[in-house]
From TrEMBL:
Catalytic activity: Endohydrolysis of (1->4)-beta-D-glucosidic linkages in cellulose, lichenin and cereal beta-D-glucans
Protein name: cellulase
Biological processes, Gene Ontology terms: cellulose catabolic process
Pfam (any one): Glyco_hydro_9
The organism's place on the tree of life at top rank: Eukaryota
Native source organism of the sequence: Taxus chinensis
Assigned protein family: Belongs to the glycosyl hydrolase 9 (cellulase E) family.
E.C. designation(s): 3.2.1.4
Length: 395
């Protein structure tokens, strides 16, 4: 299972725990009117999903590693370029460290802690550790101004050989972007991850948080100044694995949105206002994934309008509402497909990642709507926060 799919599982578990509001007594939930009722232990799912990240750790493992059967690996990652790229996460059933989904994973883990960390109990600290493991790596990948290291491990060679990372003998090739070979997608997602993580550590480790935020600002500048899709320069080294199918506009807006939230610097709000239209703020979207961030940006910016009174972002409430309406069965602009059992069906491959990331947005938007006492209007159909949560819970 790719690492960003697991993060989606965490988000979903946390949201359900929160929505059910009975986290502390660890009870089993029974719901569903159609078919046999199913009980799920969401707390256990949350714990195991976060534990999963320890199994994906690359580099020198720390003494408090809980998944003891895993050993150190990838200890000379980066050495071919004479840089330190040890650490970070392997992606899936392979030993490649893919920068784009790793950064997206970090952004989403951070968002889940920011919104729902208060309900995570003992797992909050483990979730923070999982974010820090990624953020430490992203700091290394961005430590050399003018260059971002975006991948370690030759995916075509790696995929021919199924080995555990402790024993791997496939090429640990290093891939990078720079001014001549830009990658605004991976760079801006990295900026988003660092900015979101900076908020996670703001109260627990002030200097680390500041380092993350300053790096995020520098990386976003680079992403915006040298525009291009990383798959245009890296081609078969990143495609078809994590090819930037949706281009880089969505990531630039998402990066700016996270910096707008994490910093007090007005330049990001100005940037969003000046560039939102060109970067696709109004595009029709019904997906939220490691590739396409538009829906997440809308929910994030709608929060700033609804809860922080940033009036100039009002249009994003409309865009976020449209996204919700596209998912709402029976709404005039409904576009989403559901299986006969009620599961959101987005794509034939790895569909559950879209189910879980969409469910996270539904729960998160429902939370913002509840706090600001708003509903979504889809033509003559009203979507209350309760209705939105019901759709997410059925998934
Ligand atoms: C705000 O951000 C811009 C763009 O990165 C930067 O040039 C400026 O120095 C920042 N201002 C402050 C007060 O940090």
């Amino acid at each position: 299972m790719p690492i960003h799919s697991v993060v989606a599982l965490i988000l979903f578990s946390v949201c359900i725990i929160r929505a059910e509001g009975s986290y502390l007594n660890n009870k089993r939930y029974v719901y569903g009117r159609r078919g046999p009722s199913v009980s799920h232990n969401y707390r256990d799912a949350l714990t195991k999903s976060i534990l999963f990240f320890e199994g994906q750790r690359s580099g020198k493992l720390p003494p408090d590693q809980r998944m003891r059967w895993r050993g150190d690996s990838g200890l000379s990652d980066g050495s071919t370029e004479r840089v330190d790229l040890t650490g970070g996460y392997y992606d899936a059933g392979d030993n490649v460290k893919f920068g784009l989904p790793m950064a997206f994973t970090t952004t989403m883990l951070s968002w889940s802690v920011l919104e729902f960390g208060g309900r995570m109990g003992d797992d909050l600290q483990h979730a923070r550790n999982a974010i820090r493991w990624a953020a430490d790596y992203l700091l290394k990948a961005t430590a050399h101004p003018g260059t971002i290291y975006v991948q370690v491990g030759d995916p075509n060679m790696d995929h021919k050989c199924w080995e555990r990372p402790e024993d791997m003998d496939t090429p640990r090739s290093v891939y990078k972007i720079d001014a001549q070979n830009p990658g605004s997608d991976v760079a801006s997602e990295t900026a988003a991850a660092l900015a979101a993580a900076s908020m996670v550590f703001r109260s627990t480790d002030r200097s680390y948080s500041q380092l993350l935020l300053q790096t995020a600002m520098r990386v976003f500048d680079f992403a915006d100044k040298y525009r291009g899709a990383y798959s245009d320069s890296l081609q078969s080294d990143v495609c078809p694995f994590y090819c930037s199918y949706s281009g880089y506009h969505d990531e630039l807006l998402w990066g700016a949105a996270w910096l707008q939230r994490a910093s007090t610097n007005a330049s990001y709000l100005n940037y969003i206002q000046a560039n939102g239209h060109t970067l696709g703020a109004e595009d029709n979207v019904n997906i939220f994934s490691w590739d396409d961030k538009h829906a997440g940006t809308r929910v994030l910016l709608a929060k700033a309008f609804m809860l922080r009174n940033v009036h100039s972002l009002e249009e994003y409430k409309g865009h976020a509402d449209n996204f919700i309406c596209s998912l709402l069965p029976g709404a005039p602009t409904s576009q989403a497909q559901y299986t006969p059992g009620g599961l959101l069906y987005t794509m034939s491959q790895s569909n559950l990642q879209y189910v879980t990331s969409t469910s996270f947005l539904l729960f998160t938007y429902a939370k913002y709507l509840s706090v600001s006492k708003e509903v979504v209007r889809c033509g003559n159909v009203a979507a209350t926060p309760a209705r939105i949560r019901t759709i997410a819970k059925r998934q």
